[in-house]
Amino acid sequence: MEKPVYILGIESSCDDTSASVICNAKVLSNVVANQEIHSKYGGVVPELASRAHQQNIVPVVQQALEQAKISKKDLTAIAFTRGPGLMGSLLVGTSFAKSLALGLQIPLIDVNHMQAHILSHFIEEENSKIPPFPFICLTISGGHTQIVKVTNHFEMEILGETIDDAVGEAFDKSAKILGLPYPGGPLIDKYAKLGNPKAFPFTKPKVGDLDFSFSGLKTGILYFVQKQVKLNPNFIEENLNDICASIQYTIVEILMNKLKNAVKQTGIKHIAIAGGVSANSEIRERLKLAEKHFGWTTYIPKFEYTTDNAAMIAITGYLKFLNNNYSDVSITAKARLKVTE
Ligand code: KG4
Ligand code: ZN
Questions:
Q1: Model's pTM, two decimal places?
Q2: Residue pair 45/131 in contact by the 8 Å Cβ criterion
Q3: pLDDT tens, 164-187?
Q4: Which residues line ligand 1 (CB under 6 A)?
């Protein structure tokens, strides 16, 4: 029998410090330290994020090894997020990964964070459904909104993307307008469950077939709320559930319509979602229904693999390891990196 491959994945691209150990394609541990500090600033403060990564990285990696019940000497290789992300945050994970790989004299593997969100679908678990090639992935996060055609693990093509804000930003900025703390996406999801999605109609943007635009929607929501608050200062408190349900409904409608266009154009009916916004309960539900209504086969990641996590970095590292695709220690972090790079 072949020796098992143990990969330590390290993720530090934004405001979550995470480490994960996998054995081949199975996750042994996936530790995520969220940085609460940004909540009171209404968004991620890069300077504070990199400082918090510095504090968190050693204990998070130690915990990941402990939970996986292995010692660092058992590791086969170290995978880390090279980009895209905040430079100060990326530097912490990159430098840590390099030093550890050098110290242990094992291979170092750089990972593209956006590819990793997509490749989280290749983590093997009980009842896991692995998408066959080619498939379409709707990657929706705080920084990105893309429709990607995935032809192979590392052969991807962007079919459409946002021309302004990412969908996660649309959630977070709308939440901010409503006075909710950062990140507001999960809170909109929570209140939306209790509201009427048709209460307040918001205008959907008009952009190319597979492209997205969310900045107009955000402005529309801002003007609408300002106008209503002038008429009734308690408008937000009295209608929070309905406002959240209406915002979420509009955003999910936009996403579903673009997916339908992508299926029409490509003929591909294997549809995956990935990224932080794929934690949203409505998009998950609508995709499940699409299996029945449109005959799609859909791939919805487990909750812990939606928002930023190191298990997705480790699985991508494992797939690269199988191709002997290692990095040189002179490699540098990159704040801007396309999913195809
Ligand atoms: O992938 P991710 O953790 O980080 C980036 O790479 O950007 O995505 C974070 C984004 C945030 O905008 C957050 O509000 C959003 O994902 N998010 C949600 C939900 N959970 C996280 N948006 C809507 N509904 C949710 N349940
Ligand atoms: Zn992400």
A1: 0.95
A2: no
A3: 999 999 999 999 999 999 899 999
A4: 14, 141-143, 168, 171-172, 183, 185-186, 189, 275-277, 279-280, 307-308
